[in-house]
Amino acid sequence: MNFRWSVVAACALAAAALAAPTAHAMDAAQLATQGNGKGAPPCLGCHGADGGGQAAAGFPRLAGLDASYLRRQLDSFADGTRDNPVMKPVATALTTDERQALAGYYSRLPLPAALARPATQPPAPDSRGALLATRGRWSRQVPACEQCHGPGGVGVGAAFPPLAGQSAAYIAAQLRAWQRGSRRNDPLALMQHISAALDDQDITEVAGWFAAQPLGQPKATP
């Protein structure tokens, strides 16, 4: 075959491969909408067709979160370092490849338009929640939440997920899970220490503050 046409053919094949969805991408979309038929139900039943979650029920948004973070959470549900009666059987019913595919799938979903603007007004700058989020409480060795989770809770990399764009019910539930030890997958047990220094009103108010923060379209690594 003529070398020139060999190169052209190779380029055409490469372009077609890039344009076509990967098997993992197609599998993940099917998992999200139909489940795997082996004990893992469709993800959209709790997390919504757009990955935006269900605020009233406390199901978090997954759309736009870091893929490595999402994969680690699925692994944690399966190995028990994040103990949750709903997610544990789901995660254990997924293969490692399925967990990876789902993590990538949800990380690529755009932020649902409904979450770009908070449903509630942010608390006053001098409220308890605002002060904990932006300044911390150093008398109890509690740093500002923004020091790890970024300004307004936009998230930083795979270890510190976005808090803006999550519901107050979900954020509060996670703080209480760290408090009682049913969630133990945080780096250096940082969140276990911080949550132990908070009382119930602290948790309610700081969760409300982050839930009221605006969140624009996330970057590739939120």
UniProtKB/TrEMBL annotation:
<keyword id="KW-0732">Signal</keyword>
<dbReference type="InterPro" id="IPR009056">
    <property type="entry name" value="Cyt_c-like_dom"/>
</dbReference>
<dbReference type="InterPro" id="IPR050597">
    <property type="entry name" value="Cytochrome_c_Oxidase_Subunit"/>
</dbReference>
<feature type="domain" description="Cytochrome c">
    <location>
        <begin position="124"/>
        <end position="214"/>
    </location>
</feature>
<dbReference type="Pfam" id="PF00034">
    <property type="entry name" value="Cytochrom_C"/>
</dbReference>
<keyword id="KW-0408">Iron</keyword>
<keyword id="KW-0479">Metal-binding</keyword>
<dbReference type="InterPro" id="IPR036909">
    <property type="entry name" value="Cyt_c-like_dom_sf"/>
</dbReference>
<protein>
    <submittedName>
        <fullName>C-type cytochrome</fullName>
    </submittedName>
</protein>
<feature type="domain" description="Cytochrome c">
    <location>
        <begin position="30"/>
        <end position="110"/>
    </location>
</feature>
<dbReference type="Pfam" id="PF13442">
    <property type="entry name" value="Cytochrome_CBB3"/>
</dbReference>
<keyword id="KW-0349">Heme</keyword>
<feature type="signal peptide">
    <location>
        <begin position="1"/>
        <end position="25"/>
    </location>
</feature>
<dbReference type="InterPro" id="IPR024167">
    <property type="entry name" value="Cytochrome_c4-like"/>
</dbReference>
